[in-house]
Amino acid sequence: IVTTFLTKRKSRFVPIAIAGVLLGLVGMYAYAKYGVVVRERFSSIFNPVSIKVTTRAGDILRENQWSVSWNAFLQHPLSGVGFGNIEALLQNIPNSGRFVHPTSIYLEYLSEAGILGGLMLLLFIGSQVLDLITGRKTDILSPVLAGVTVGMLITWYTDMTARYYAVAFVVAVLAGLNSTSAEVAPLGNAKP
To answer: pTM for the complete prediction?
Structure first.
């Protein structure tokens, strides 16, 4: 969706139509093949802790992790509890398991590094947005990079941790692509 709206106005109709048809087909297929499961998943999105939802326990755990992480930030707003120290607090949540994290990069930075960590994360995000805006006129891939960046920022809200090597690798590659997008020399007549 983001990619479509960053392309030229004249050429937006075809991608929107294709995306709409594909979404419709995927939705019909999923409903036909997995009807009950699809309905249950959508009900869990709108009411995640309902007794009828099979993912209820995990959703309750996630809400508790968010609450503990937010309270850690409120108790230590300037410097947080320190990187790697939020796990000790999260281990106190019943049924938390062995490997725990705040399940939100934003809450992870705020709870572990306080306002300073939150500002550093905002600075990183702001630099990525600025690079995307700068590269928009010269890099033909900028709509794709913008779409991937928006998707990443949404995912960071609900689940992920920056300490996983795979996550850190993807973020580093995307940040590098966004930064080089801003530095691309003009391509003459080529425009996104």
So the answer is: 0.68
Q: How far is CA 174 from the centre of its chain?
A: 13
Whether 174 contacts 125, CB under 8 Å: no
Which token pair is 140? Answer: 């033909």
Give the C-alpha separation, 39 to 112, whole Å: 37
CA distances (Å), origin 185, targets 84, 136, 144, 181, 182: 42, 12, 18, 9, 9
| DSSP-based three-state secondary structure for 25 | helix
Encode pLDDT of 68-122 as tens digits.
999 999 999 999 999 888 888 888 888 777 778 788 889 989 999 999 999 999 9
- Classify residue 18 as exposed, middle or buried by CB count within 10 Å of its CB (0-12, 13-18, 19+): exposed
Rounded Cα gap, residues 81 and 86, in angstroms: 7
> What's the rounded Cα separation, in Å, for the pair 13 and 64?
44
pLDDT tens for 15-64 read 777 778 888 888 888 878 877 777 777 777 777 667 776 777 777 888 88
- Token representation of residue 165: 């090597």
